[in-house]
Structures are given as C-alpha cells and as structure tokens.
What does this fold into?
Amino acid sequence: MSKSKRLMEMIIAVNRKRRFTVKELAIEFDVSTRTILRDLQELSELGVPLYSEVGPHGGYRILQERLLPPIAFTEREAVAVFFAVQALRHYSSLPFETETSAMLNKFYNFMPEDVRNRIDQMRDRVDFVTPVRQAQSPHLSVLLDAAIRQIVLLVEYVSQRQRGMREIQPIGIFTQDGLWYCWAYCLLRKTYRVFRCDRFESAVPSDSQPLDLQHIDLGSKDQLTRSADDCVYFHAELSAEGVEACEAEPWSVPLLHVRSDGTGWLEGNVARKDISYFASYFVGLGREAAVQQPKELRTAIRQLLSDLMVRYMDKDAE
Amino acid sequence: MSKSKRLMEMIIAVNRKRRFTVKELAIEFDVSTRTILRDLQELSELGVPLYSEVGPHGGYRILQERLLPPIAFTEREAVAVFFAVQALRHYSSLPFETETSAMLNKFYNFMPEDVRNRIDQMRDRVDFVTPVRQAQSPHLSVLLDAAIRQIVLLVEYVSQRQRGMREIQPIGIFTQDGLWYCWAYCLLRKTYRVFRCDRFESAVPSDSQPLDLQHIDLGSKDQLTRSADDCVYFHAELSAEGVEACEAEPWSVPLLHVRSDGTGWLEGNVARKDISYFASYFVGLGREAAVQQPKELRTAIRQLLSDLMVRYMDKDAE
DNA sequence: TTTAACTATGACGTAATTTGTCACTATTAT
DNA sequence: ATAATAGTGACAAATTACGTCATAGTTAAA
It folds into this structure.
C-alpha cells in the first residue's frame, strides 16, 4: 500500500479507535513501529490532534473528542445539513451544547464558491419558524442524561398552583411549539407524566432505585398514555378548516377522520379530567367544530360561553 | 512538500475549484505537469470522482457535484448535526431534495463506535415535534428558486372560496406549524401577501418583468406587512396562561407586553379586515384573555359567542 | 527496586518511490 | 492548420520511505 493511502486510512483508523498503541497500528498496517511513529508525526503536522502518554497503559489518543474522518457530502446533502442546523437556531435551549454557529462556519468555509453563493442566497429566503419563548429550560441536558442513563432525578417542579419536590425517572424529552417537555415516570404518582421543562426549578440525581424502563422510549409514549384514567366517549364534527386546525394538535391526530370533501370528525375516548381543556379548545375552533358527545363536554362549553358572554357584555352595554 | 501532504491539499483544492487544468495545478503546487497527472490518477483511485475533457476549454472537473473536504467535526458538532437532520424528518415536504436518511446513514457510519452508541441512546429520547399535515406542498423548490433568482411566477391559487390565476414574485418561503407559506409580492393586488404553499395548484415561471426586490428578504417581512391597510387600535388583557399562549403566535409577539407577575397585555394596531380572525382567536383563549378595544372586536366576539351558544344549546335542551 | 510497557529519537544502508524530462499520441475548438 | 488540452511510456536522477539497531525517557505495577 502506498504511503499516502496508508495515511488516509490511518486517519480513519485513528478516529475509529480513539486510543491505540504504536505496536497495534504497526500490526494492522503491516509496517514497522518506526514507520508508524514517523507517520503519526506526519499526521500531527497535517493537523490531526494526536496526543501520547508514555508508560504502561499509555499510548496514543486522539484529542478533544475530535475529528470524524472526512465525510463526502453531495451538494444537496450539504445544503440540507446547513438548513437543518439553521432550523435549530430558533431554539433558545437545546439539550446539547451547540457551537452551531462555529460549526456552520466550518461547514460553510469548506464549500466551493458556488455552493456558498447558493447558500447565501437561500439563507434569507427559507425559514423554519418556531415560537420564541421567554421561558428558558436550563435542565435539558440533565434530563436527557438521566433518560439515557436511566437514573432517577429529584426535581423541584412548579405546576399550575403548587410547587413541590418529587422524584421522576425521565424517559425522554421533546420540543413542541417552542417549549420543551419531559416525559417521565413519576415515582410519587406511580404513573407516566409529561412535565414542562421550563417549570423545573432544579433537577439533581437521586439515589432512589430506578425502575427497569430500558425498553421504554418516546416511541412508546402513545401506547402508555392512551389507556389510563376515567374515560368517556367523544365525538365532534369538523369543517374543512376545523380538520386543518386539528392536524396541528398532536393529541387529536389519532382521533381524526377525514372525508373526501375535506370535512371530518374526531372520535374516540378521552379522559374525563381533560374536559375543561377540551371545552376551551373547541370554543377556540368556533364555527369550525361542533361537539356531539359527551354531554358533559357540551355542558362545559355552554358554561364557558356564558362566562365569556358576561365578560364581553357588561362594558359595552353602557 | 511531501507527496502525501500534496495529495491531501489537492483534495481540498480540487473541491474548491470545481474545474481546473493540469497546468494550473502544476503551477499552484510547483511540480511538473507529469506529476500532477500521476497525482490525479491516484486521487481517482482513492475515490475522488474526477472527470476530464481534452481540447481547448477542456480540463478536469470534479463529478457529481461532490464535496469531499476533510471536514473535522467534534463529537458535539456531530451530535448536533445528527439531531438537526433528525428534526427535519417530520416535514413531509422540503424545498430541497432530501436523501436525508441516506445522509444520516453516511454520517452515522463514519462515526466511531462510542459516538454511535451515544446517538443510539439519544435518538429515541429526543424529539422535535412538528404537526404532520395531510397537505403536500409540491411547488416548494420552484417557489424557492423563483425567490432566489427573482423571477415572476404564474400560479394557480385556491383561496378560501375562489380559485384563480395570478402572478406573484416570491420573496421567500417559511414553515410554521407543519405548513409551508410563501411570502411574495402579488402583481395583481400590488402588495405583499402570504400564500399557503399547499394551495398552489400550479406554479410556472412567467415572462412578466420582475420588480427589483433584491434587497427584500424574509427579514424585511415584519416592516413591510405592518403598516398597510385600514387599522384600528387594539388592547387585550392577558392572564399568565394567556401570555404563554400568545407567545406561540408570531403575529402577537410584537404586540405583547409582560408584567413581572407573568400576566400581560396585547396592544397595537391591527387591520380591520382581520377582526373576525381575532374574534375567533380570543374566544379560543377563553378566560385567559379579555379584549378591551376596539368595540368592533368585542361586538364580533359577542356575535360569535351567541352563534356558538345556539349551536351548543338546542340539542341538549331536549 | 526492578521490570515491563509504553513513547521517542538518531543513524545508516538499502529499497522503493517519486519526479522531471523528453518524446510521443489523441482529441477538439477556433 | 493551430493551439490547447489530456494522456502514456521510458529512463535516470533525486528523494523518500523503511527497517533495524541502539539508546533514552517515563511510569504503573509487581
């Protein structure tokens, strides 16, 4: 094998192993250790950040958790990656530390002139809008780490009206509409729950014994949250606009049925405790929805409507 | 310079220029043309997709619009890119052709074992949720291309109740809540407008003379859409929950004011023709909002409320 | 304290490779 | 035709790469 080829392959090998000895490489490439040493020095000069320690258990390492080997992107792929990263820029919190701007630059600088121009032209003409929220979510990386390592966290959570400590075992985190949520098993209530990440005041690892939830992840969410609670059958008719509005609500998608003319209906079982939420939701849909079932929901809607009626009546009656 | 180093630099050089002659490189690297020829052959063998044409104006090209820069990603950057691309996977339409899954694999396969494991653990524990819509937007790339090249399109657009041809000059496209929108200058109405991309039945370049809008891009949107039309002053009080709900609506963000206790208000001028939209929006906010001004809006809300009252009254009265 | 497992460097001769030059051929736009 | 390109082959000279051996330094562990 030619030297150049050996060097190129060595870059890859060195990045795959992150730790290796000279002897090891010598055997792998079937050259003498002296040659490997010379090669490694050359790689260093070429900019591969190598670092070595002498002594037993010493050896070479690649520095700074660094350097994935040269990856060949097509132009399309490069553009896609560029915009994917751009799409993240609206998020004020992310679970991994992002030198995204640094890396965008790196990406950008390596591209040939014409691709660069193309990107320049596109960058202000394509956008992925996400609501920018006031609320920060500073504990994302702790939560994610706990989900990965399956450990229990002791958190201080501020819900609607109360604030309290509880223990949770995170399953995963997700973002929607500009807010981050954590889906976790709550050791207090002994059930799965969704928490808003900006409402954690603190989150620290706890000593409590975790459950074995390795096989549970965000993909299991739908199954596990569906069944529970005290349910009631529910049916609402939707206009075409109503259908479109419901498509935007994750909870409603599994219940949604669409007719060929664009209209549709929602049908399924929902938890009784969510009725006040639904009342407000369907009032929001206005003329685009008509709830048929259950009676409780229609009652709640009527109640809400008359409350609002009062609110919007008084002052203008003057 | 050693041959290996020359080869590595040559890979970069060759990717930067996309077209070059042997002589050119010979001068750049200060070696003979014979050497360059040999080097290029070697690069070919190493997998760089080169292609050559003889004759005047001939020369070498790099094929398949490929980029092989030895980009060095840190682990963090790699993870960020991976998830950025993952975040795009919810979009059913994108303005560039995405072999995203192919490219994710490429990325994935190049990473060392441990990074791979880390990603495996994360991939089902982090998600970027975006509503999945029925509506496809097949003309995105045409629209984007028109925005970049500043040309006029003849489109067939289906709005609420009518369908018609019109000429537009796209400024840019953006996605929000799972739908794609195109912001464009409408030659028919002589004004800027937002179109829903899934409602374009067709879009083809037109011969009409484009306006000079080079300096206008998505960043200019706020300024240019603010002023127009017949406006009316508007004021609504919000509870803390109401504030959070308004943060999610892009139009309301510039009007939003937050007090230290979390409550707030919306204040500003809005177009009179949007009143029915606002009525429905504020009814949707229910008890979390109270519109003070203008009277027209309060009237529209009352009207909507009584319509709904009727809808939810009759049947249960039985 | 010794030993073994590492890296690190220098010197040197031989083997291998790289390089430039020169002499060709072939293709194609002008 | 001419000039600008790529592409090949051969050969000698120059350069580089390689292995071996000698030697030294560091450090964890026995």
